[in-house]
Amino acid sequence: MNTIWFPDLTNTSVPKYQIIVDAIRSGISNGQLEEGEKLPPVREVAWHLGITPGTVARAFSQLVDAGVLEATVGRGTFVAKQRAVAQVQDWPEVVSLKSPKLPDVGQIEAVRSALRKISHMQDGLLMGYPNAKTDLPAREAVLEWSAGKLLGRTTPDDVVLTYGGQNAITLILQTVLKGAAPVVLAEDLTYAGFRHAARLQRAKIVGLASDEYGVRPGALDAACRAHDAQIFCTSPEVHNPTAHRTGLERRKALADVAQHHGVQILEDDCYALRDSDLPSYRALLPRQTWYVSSISKLLTPSLRLGYAIAPSPRAAELRRTAQYSFFGIATPLTELTAELLSSPNIADLNRAMQDQIAALVQVAVNGLGSYDLRWRPDVPFLWLSLPNGWRAGSFCSAAERAGVLIRSADDFTLMEDRAPHAVRIAVNGQVDIKCFEAAIGRLRGLLDKPPSEIEV
After folding, report:
1. Strand 210-211 and strand 214-215: pairing?
2. What is the pLDDT of residue 82?
3. Together in a domain, 267 and 131
4. 396 in a domain, yes or no?
5. Quick check: is 5 in a domain?
6. Quick check: 268 and 165 in contact, CB under 8 A?
7. Which end of the chain is more exposed for a tag (fewer CB within 10 A), N or C?
8. Quick count: other Cβ atoms within 10 Å of Cβ 399?
């Protein structure tokens, strides 16, 4: 029995099944486990490692779903052909924690399977321009996929497919903004994509003060009065970069202000990985809210598939904007999306991704939790307020010299506002989890030893 790949399960906060997953992947990449090699039975592995068979079975099952292993009833579990193995870079010199990088929990094989199925799509679909009829299955699929969100009454006619969430934001601003000098409102600390999209429309973006409950209603009201604003861009479910969630009472108060002034709301929900128990602005203010999401943060960013749900009376306007911009999403992509989101395994993939992200977040919390850290297990990034002695820019530079890339608060601050001394740290599921743990350890080392010299 080949036991050379067996991992050390002592002195680690990482879930044991994940360590086994990483050990098998590593064993395959370094040649300790060869293609077609039979792995020991689950009970034998469990006995040697001193853990329960269920833990080993979970690891094996995840790797089978990902195409790394193959299981045959009555024969056992074998290392799959290498073409089916996801390429995971182990221990790179520089670990990027700037943007979340999803682990493969089976979505690579799911995409490949969907690609194989749509390769037999009708000839007519491959030879014609996309239209409302050809992309209807994908629009229906994204609504079904979003069923756990409290979006109010929606129909496929309200949905406009886009090339990612950022494209949806830009299309909405193109649809809504009017006049020579339009004004866009957003949190004073906000997703940079709002700023970039506003700039493309030659719009001025004005920051709004926030507190621990979200944007202050008084700040929104004052800005609406002072600037004749047309749209308020916000992410109530997962604020980027702080991971804050806006509560129900604050959502209602902000919706009331927007309704009073006739201001539209752009609700970016791309980072919300789980179903929500709170109504969206789309539900609270359905005639003024434009909802945006995508499959990038939970399945894969490679397909660039996003969507916007328009207020029902204005869906035709948004559809025209999209049509005038790119005629429609490529039919093979909409067919792939419909196939992928309709898969009977999609719910399991979503849960597996959520579990993996929660495990990675916990690793980061274990390393950095003694500092001022904002985090949630269902959000793939953490917000770290730096201790005395560190500024965001100098900390990011020091982290880069240590081989870790992170984002400064400056990246999320509007031009006229002052950035806090804070950084955003994203999870990276595409490196060995011990490599991720080591990267967090390097950041902890910097926090423990702030600069002692004053720069002049």
Report:
1. antiparallel
2. 65
3. yes
4. yes
5. no
6. yes
7. C
8. 22
Cα–Cα distance for residue pair 134/339, rounded to 1 Å: 13
Tally of CB atoms within 10 A around 275: 11
Question: Is 2 domain-assigned?
Answer: no
What's the pLDDT at 88? 46
pTM of this structure: 0.79
First-last CA distance in the chain: 63
CATH of the domain at 330: 3.40.640.10
Taking the C-alpha atoms of residue 302 and residue 439, their distance in angstroms, rounded to an integer, is 25
What is the C-alpha to C-alpha distance for residues 168 and 308, in angstroms, rounded to an integer? 6
Position 91 scores a pLDDT of 66
DSSP conformation class of 51: S
Torsion angle of C-alpha atoms 98, 99, 105, 107, degrees rounded to 10: -140
Q: What is the pLDDT of residues 294-332, one digit of tens each?
A: 999 989 999 999 999 999 899 999 999 999 999 999 999
Are 269 and 135 found together in one domain?
A: yes
What is residue 30's predicted lDDT score, i.e. its pLDDT? 76
Both 304 and 387 in one domain: the answer is no
Please report the pLDDT score of residue 287 as a whole number. 96
Which pLDDT value is given to residue 25? Answer: 85
Query: Can you give the residue range of the structural domain that contains 431?
Result: 95-102+346-448
pLDDT lower than 50: segments of the chain = 84-90, 456
Record the tokens describing residue 143, joined without a space. Answer: 């609504």
Distant-in-sequence, close-in-space partners of 250: CB < 8 Å, separation ≥ 6: 213, 214, 215, 217
DSSP letter at 30 equals T
Residues 191, 303 within the same domain:
yes
- Whole-angstrom distance, CA of residue 376 vs CA of residue 387: 21
411, with CB counted inside 10 A (0-12, 13-18, 19+), is: middle
Query: Residue 403 region, left (φ>0) first, then alpha (ψ -120 to 50), else beta?
Result: left
